[in-house]
Write a structure and sequence with these properties.
Layout: H1 3-9, E1 16-17, H2 21-26, H3 32-41, H4 44-53, E2 58-60, E3 65-68, H5 74-86, E4 96-101, E5 104-109, E6 112-115, E7 121-123, E8 147-153, E9 157-159, H6 165-169, E10 173-180, H7 186-189, E11 190-197, E12 202-203, H8 205-208, H9 211-221, E13 224-229, H10 236-244, H11 252-260, H12 264-273, H13 280-288, E14 290-297, E15 305-310, E16 327-329, H14 343-370
Parallel strand pairs: 7-16
Antiparallel strand pairs: 1-3, 2-3, 4-5, 5-6, 8-15, 9-14, 10-11, 10-13, 11-12, 13-14
Helix pairs in contact: 3-14, 10-13
Length: 371
């Protein structure tokens, strides 16, 4: 149970974020107005109280992210499962949802295929990344008219750089660099943080915050030009001043290292983006706004989360499928995306809370109709 939750716990289990709710809601981009009622009904403070009610006190880190003090998922998951058992919930593992009989789900089980006749069904089957943890997205074939194609979100990107660059610098980190795309405002398309160079390209939370806009641009134009600021805490003037203070007889590599503590991969990126024998002014200008073309995304299965899935047009305000009365959907299987930082888990919990209330309302109305 809870394999993706346990995986999230490996990096501390970032449950949610403490920023003001108005700012928080903007993180959901085009899906904000869709998810806002659910998040307001079950906001970050409610998620924190839920975890603490299971005996897992939380704290807010310096970045505003909220974590359980245990910094892992297993104690929370154990307490959660124990509570469910006490409430009489029956958990059946090794069941795969394979088809429908009307609005009743059909499962392949160790004892053969079974159809479950339910008063209401709530589906929370995840997106299509990290399939080895269970969320392979194959369920979309069972809702072909209701789903949008999956796409990677919070994913790595593939830069247009020399073929051997990644191999030579695999594992290197560009620390605290500025990233921007499209010349838009900070909240929308500008970020700052560490970038990790991998054998496939770039990864990092600062990049993930821009992933939706970058992905859409690559699909539309064939590439997206990311702009890096290799020294965001220094002004253009200060960068130039430090470069000019170095002795002319020093090599360019030494000047960049001594003046700006620029590491080897950063220096190589700068050389690739400037002419040979670049002047200090050219180096300073490029270092503060280094263009890096991105030509692809990492594989869907390696993405932290996915866009695509059940479209907003096919569910009502209770997250019930309009084509299958009594069937509700929630979590990452819905077509929304958000950056890392607590927004993903919050969105999953809030939509599940809303859908569960939808189930209760559906059952009450059904019972009233029978009476």
């Amino acid at each position: 149970m809870g394999r993706k939750l346990l995986m999230a716990g490996r990096s501390g289990l970032n449950l949610t974020h403490s920023e003001p709710l108005g700012r928080f809601l903007k993180r959901y981009g085009n899906a904000q107005d869709w998810l806002e009622p659910a998040i307001r009904a079950f906001p970050p403070e409610a998620l924190r109280q839920w975890a603490e009610g299971l005996g897992q006190p939380c704290f807010t880190g310096s970045s505003g992210r909220v974590f359980p003090k245990a910094m892992k998922a297993s104690p929370l998951l154990r307490a959660w499962l124990e509570r469910l058992a006490q409430q009489g919930v029956t958990i059946q593992t090794r069941h795969r949802f394979v088809s429908w009989e009307g609005s009743d789900p059909v499962f392949d089980t160790p004892d053969g295929r079974i159809s479950v006749q339910a008063d209401a069904t709530l589906l929370t089957m995840g997106g299509a990344s990290w399939s080895r943890l269970g969320s392979d997205g194959l369920w979309a074939d069972l809702l072909p008219d209701d789903t949008a194609p999956f796409a990677p979100a919070n994913c790595g990107f593939l830069p247009d750089w020399p073929a051997d660059f990644a191999a030579r610098h695999d594992g290197s980190v560009l620390h605290s660099v500025g990233l921007s795309f499209g010349g838009l405002s900070f909240d929308e398309h500008q970020s700052r943080g560490d970038l990790t160079i991998t054998a496939r390209g770039f990864e990092g939370s600062a990049l993930y915050a821009l992933s939706a806009a970058l992905r859409d641009a690559i699909r539309r134009d064939g590439q997206a030009v990311l702009t890096l600021d290799l020294r965001p805490t220094l002004s253009n003037e200060e960068v130039l001043k430090r470069l000019l203070a170095q002795r002319e007889r020093e090599s360019q590599s030494n000047r960049l290292r001594k003046a700006l503590a620029l590491d080897a991969p950063s220096q190589e990126l700068l050389r690739l983006a400037t002419p040979k024998n670049a002047t200090p002014l050219q180096l300073a200008q490029t270092l503060k706004a280094l263009p890096l073309p991105l030509v692809g995304m990492d594989a869907l299965d390696r993405a932290i989360s996915t866009a695509g899935g059940v479209q907003r047009e096919v569910v009502d305000t209770r997250f019930m499928l309009t084509s299958r009365p009594g069937v509700f959907v929630a979590g990452e299987m819905l077509d929304w995306e958000a950056p890392t930082g607590g927004y993903l888990l919050q969105g999953c919990f809030s939509t599940a809370h809303a859908a569960a209330n939808g189930v209760l309302g559906w059952l009450e109305s059904s019972n009233s109709a029978i009476a």
